[in-house]
Amino acid sequence: MPLRIVQSKQNGRLKELRSALAHPGRDERGLAGIEGPNLIEEAVRAGLRMPTVFWSLETQDRLETLALPAETEVLLVPRDLLASVLATETPQPVAAFIEPPEWTWDHILGGHSDTAPLIVVLAGLQDPGNLGTIVRSAEAFGATGVICLPGTVSAWNPKAVRASAGSLFRVPMLVASAEETFERLLEAGVRVFATALLAGKAVNDADLAASVALIIGNEGNGVPADIAAQASGSLTIPCPGPVESLNAAVAASVLLYEASRQRALQGGQHRPPKRGWR
Question: Are 72 and 31 in contact (CB under 8 A)?
């Protein structure tokens, strides 16, 4: 594990880290930036390649607590200098570049599992905290993957990564157009439900043990009309209390829980034959 001390804010790697965190998404090398020892531990456990770790020079002795890969380069940076680069208001003295996992439609559609696909489709979701929470709930309730349609915030936004608590490293995720998404889902026999504030079928009355995809829309405007029009139905979460709507992440979590509950009652749902739905 090569170690190098960095003292200048003009260091190339520090500039790359600052850019990756401020403008999330993969950099030119196909890498993403993450912050904090817990996320780094989760990335190590997930087996992700981690070419560079940035560690506070003042806490160098704690490096041994992380089982970093032998080939990982460690840059020791003065705490104040490292803090000036990181995105959080009260940053922890460690960050890293990771190589995000490569997922395919086969992963999303549950090709590596005998259970029916359970997919979350994010249509214009803007709050990174909501995205990260949804990914965490997706893992908790056994979803096979998440699809981000154009206009959705980057999953590698630092707030999204933190909110996912490491689930982002394990849950299959793709960025795809609406056209490709509906084409793939139709071919795989996945029924698509849009979420609706009113007039949809009550979620507890819908068959979510079958192959389903759940569309979660923008926090303010919901699912775009052109996207909802391509779904085979809409779902509403009955709320007896005097609340107009649920937070997007809460709504997604409720839907995923209900799908998980139905599948558990059936003892697990085996993959049905492929067929088209409309």
Answer: no
